[in-house]
């Protein structure tokens, strides 16, 4: 019995040993397969590069397994779906050393994505194209076996940073000034209108409603202009021919793409906050609960599906926590009715509930409480209200009127420090 059990266990043991790492199965004329460690089975690859040569196997490895650079033959075949496949084990991607980055310089990492390994000369050309001038320093990583080719270059550049999209710069002070003026105008006439209604002063009510209507038109104009501005700035400065074919990925460009995309996530979050505020102003708890049931995750700043989606399978996993922190800071500057000094809790998992409790104080039925509003002399806080306040003026005014009242040491930086340099250059460019 013991011998029978041992015989039955041998195939499993062989599989366990054989597939301890990442494996590609390839044979001419057959579908390429890869071993799925989660499903514990081979699956057909959607990638095919025409043959089972060294270059093709390396590309397949990088397509299916994060942090791999190339593949080596295991010198054995395995029958999969009735056909033999030669097996190749994918090898680790050894990252490049990070050069020293002096003050005033910036760095980036460019990684081969879905193409062949590149020579030092090819990667140097790509780095200089990105830097726009001869680079200060460069190192190479992810050597492809014994060949003089690589999949990564980390370089240091002394040129001024590229004109990456920055929402805080493109959101011109002109818009901020108009929106705050509109908010103050709305708040003042909103209170005057309430008093006139209490006094049954029909003539004054009509006069104030006309002013409020004009304020609504002004707010709508600002809102439309801002939406158009967001849609027409950003990407046109961020593409270069070398990256359009997806052969190379740049950490700096990934950060930039995420930052540009997160402005839309932030815009949607602001719209949700506006809707919550308008429901609270008219005493509609049902409306608030409906929003929370359907869109609560979109109100979070500590966990953003867009970041998870874009960084999933990325050769730059270190970008995810950096972008999450950036988005939390963005949320602090773009939360309707609340100054950033009151929003340190936004990185917590229960932040939406905490914010809702504050909103119940700020937007009580028929009243706007200024307790948590940013200080008027706080310019940074004023910039933080870009999306939400203008939208709030539009929606809340509509509801109110139309509804009847009822360093210095020269040491090599770590990878996280390297990414922080990239983030700092994005934030300051």
UniProtKB/TrEMBL annotation:
Renumbered to this chain, the signal peptide range is 1-16
Q: Which residues cross the membrane?
A: 384-402
Keywords of the record: Membrane, Signal, Transmembrane, Transmembrane helix
Is Signal one of the keywords? yes
Name of protein = SUEL-type lectin domain-containing protein
């Amino acid at each position: 019995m013991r011998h029978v059990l041992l015989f039955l266990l041998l195939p499993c043991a062989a599989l366990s040993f054989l597939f301890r790492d990442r494996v590609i199965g390839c044979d001419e004329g057959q579908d390429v397969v890869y071993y799925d460690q989660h499903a514990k089975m081979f699956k057909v690859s959607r990638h095919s590069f025409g043959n089972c040569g060294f270059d093709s196997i390396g590309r397949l490895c990088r397509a299916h397994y994060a942090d791999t650079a190339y593949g080596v033959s295991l010198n054995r075949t395995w029958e999969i779906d009735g056909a033999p496949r030669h097996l190749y084990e994918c090898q680790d991607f050894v990252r490049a050393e990070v050069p020293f980055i002096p003050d005033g310089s910036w760095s980036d990492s460019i990684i081969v994505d879905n193409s062949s390994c590149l020579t030092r000369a090819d990667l140097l050309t790509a780095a200089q194209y990105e830097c726009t001038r001869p680079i200060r320093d460069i190192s190479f990583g992810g050597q492809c076996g014994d060949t003089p080719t690589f999949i990564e270059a980390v370089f240091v550049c002394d040129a001024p940073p590229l004109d990456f999209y920055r929402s805080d710069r493109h959101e011109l002070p002109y818009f901020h000034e108009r929106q705050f003026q509109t908010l103050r105008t709305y708040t003042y006439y909103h209170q005057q209108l309430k008093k006139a209604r209490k006094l049954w002063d029909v003539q004054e009510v009509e006069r104030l409603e006309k002013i409020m209507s004009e304020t609504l038109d002004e707010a709508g104009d600002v809102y439309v202009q801002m939406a158009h501005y967001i849609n027409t700035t950003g990407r046109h400065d961020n593409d270069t021919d070398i990256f359009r074919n997806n052969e190379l990925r740049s950490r700096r460009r990934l950060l930039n793409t995420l930052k540009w995309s997160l402005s839309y996530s932030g815009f949607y979050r602001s719209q949700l906050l506006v809707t919550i505020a308008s429901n609270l102003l008219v005493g509609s708890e049902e409306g608030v609960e409906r929003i929370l049931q359907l869109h609560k995750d979109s109100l979070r700043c500590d966990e953003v599906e867009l970041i998870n989606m874009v960084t999933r399978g990325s050769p730059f996993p270190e970008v995810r926590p950096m972008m999450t922190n950036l988005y939390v800071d963005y949320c602090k500057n773009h939360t309707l009715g609340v100054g950033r000094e009151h929003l340190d809790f936004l990185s917590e998992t229960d932040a939406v509930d905490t914010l809702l409790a504050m909103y119940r104080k700020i937007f009580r039925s028929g009243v706007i409480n200024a307790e948590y509003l940013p200080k008027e002399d706080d310019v940074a806080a004023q910039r933080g209200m870009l999306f939400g306040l203008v939208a709030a003026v539009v929606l809340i005014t509509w509801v109110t009127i139309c509804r009847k009242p009822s360093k210095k040491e020269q040491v090599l930086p770590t990878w996280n420090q390297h990414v922080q340099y990239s983030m700092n250059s994005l934030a300051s460019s």
